Amino acid sequence: MSVRDADAMIAWFSAVGFVEHATYRDQADPSVVVHAEWLWPGGGGLMFGSQRPDAAVDNVGGSAAYLVADDPDAVFEAALAAGGTVQRAMEDQDYGGRGGSVADPEGNHWSFGSYQPS
């Protein structure tokens, strides 16, 4: 994932529950994240960096993810409090579980739910 404002997105990732594993910054410009790895408590993780010409991914706002959470309502509310906007309100799903979606401050789509695909 590529981000415009790494520090703002790091704050957003922290607010929704991601945990820093590693963050490598440009020595000449510490506002630039060259590579970061953050973990999701339920398993899996996220790799991201600042938007720049030599980045592996340079488009911003075009990513989408589904995160399984024990309490998706709490994660959804934390995402909104951190600057996200509602894309799909939290609701019980016909196929099981509960879920909803938000856009982060840079336009990426995040779905939070309790449904664990098998």
Give a structural overview.
This protein is an alpha/beta fold. It has a single domain, classed as 2,3-Dihydroxybiphenyl 1,2-Dioxygenase, domain 1, CATH 3.10.180.10. Helices cover 18% and strands 39% of the residues. The protein contains two helices and eight strands, in the order βαββββαβββ. The strands form two sheets. Strands 1-4-3-2 form a four-stranded mixed beta sheet. Strands 5-8-7-6 form a four-stranded mixed beta sheet, covered by helices on one side. The two termini are 25 Å apart. The model has no long low-confidence stretch (mean pLDDT 92).
Average pLDDT confidence is 92
In whole angstroms, the N-to-C terminal distance is: 25 Å
- The beta-strand count equals 8
- Gyration radius, to the nearest Å? 15 Å
Globally, the shape reads: elongated
List the helices and strands and how they pair.
Blueprint (H helix, E strand, L loop, with lengths): L1 E2 L2 H11 L2 E7 L7 E7 L5 E6 L13 E5 L3 H10 L3 E8 L5 E6 L5 E5 L5
Parallel strand pairs: 1-4, 5-8
Antiparallel strand pairs: 2-3, 3-4, 6-7, 7-8
What's this entry about, in short?
The protein has 118 residues and is α/β, with parallel strands linked by helices.
Descriptors:
alpha/beta, about 120 residues, four-stranded mixed sheet, single chain, 2,3-Dihydroxybiphenyl 1,2-Dioxygenase, domain 1
